[in-house]
Amino acid sequence: MAHHTIQTPITKLLGIKHPIILAGMNQASGPELAAAVSNAGGMGVVGGHNYTPEFLKEMLDDLKAGLTDKSLPFGVDLLLPKVGEGARATNYDYTKGKLDALVDVVIESGAKLFVSAVGVPTQATIAKLHAADILVMNMVGAPKHVSKALDAGVDIICAQGGEGGGHTGDVPTSVLIPVVADLCRGRISPLTKEPVLVVAAGGIFDGRGLAMALSLGASAVWVGTRFLASLEADAPQVHKEGVLGCGYHDTLRTLVFTG
User: Fold this and answer.
1) CB-based burial of residue 230 (10 Å sphere; 0-12 exposed, 13-18 middle, 19+ buried)?
2) What Pfam families does the annotation carry (predicted)?
């Protein structure tokens, strides 16, 4: 029986079978889950905050050890909020001054994708990643954030609507995706020399959500919460049970860590 796949510019760019990227969810998106998603034809991503270069290297070594094909792509997702002058007072340097060393680990690991979940990487950081042939994706939760990310030189914009369990804003997914797609139109990736691509996120959990995202201008989806209850997810059992038993009005949004 033939297995049909959906091919998009993202699947071709990343070398994956399905336009599905695992969201970096700190502990939950550990090496085992990331490897499982890559093995299944999507793209596994590990991500989090306060990682030391040594810990990140250990995670990526474990991820690569779990790949059934060592050529399968994977990514790394870090929090890089602006700090210092002009930044929100609550912002914090989650790399603790180790960003360059963390980027070195990402490069040495052979990662295909680097993601900034919060904040825009500096042009120097993006240039360093591009020199190693690593794509850079930036998360945005509002249209106003798109131009800064594009001007910095990112290759992919991930539009995460307010339904998302991660770092998001108030704009609904169905509204944000087409607006971001329009804002990216005509912009070129410095690395690929092809159009900047859009990934959609925020409350996407099945094929209907994927179809919606593609129809609104995205080339792939960034999915996190849907994977939380999987056996491979390194979330505490109480967290998994909470997600499975959660009602429509049981979610709250807090600062940074859960949204």
Assistant:
1) middle
2) NMO
CB 129 within 8 A of CB 106: yes
* Sequence-separated (6 or more) residues with CB below 8 Å from residue 9: 194, 195, 197, 219
pTM of the model: 0.90
Instruction: Spell out a b/e string for 35-74, using b for 16 or more CB atoms within 10 Å of the CB, else e.
Output: bbbbebebbbbbbbbebebeebbebbeebbebbeeeebbb
Domain 9-237 architecture = Alpha-Beta Barrel (3.20)
d(CA 224, CA 84): 30
32 vs 200: CA distance, rounded Å:
24
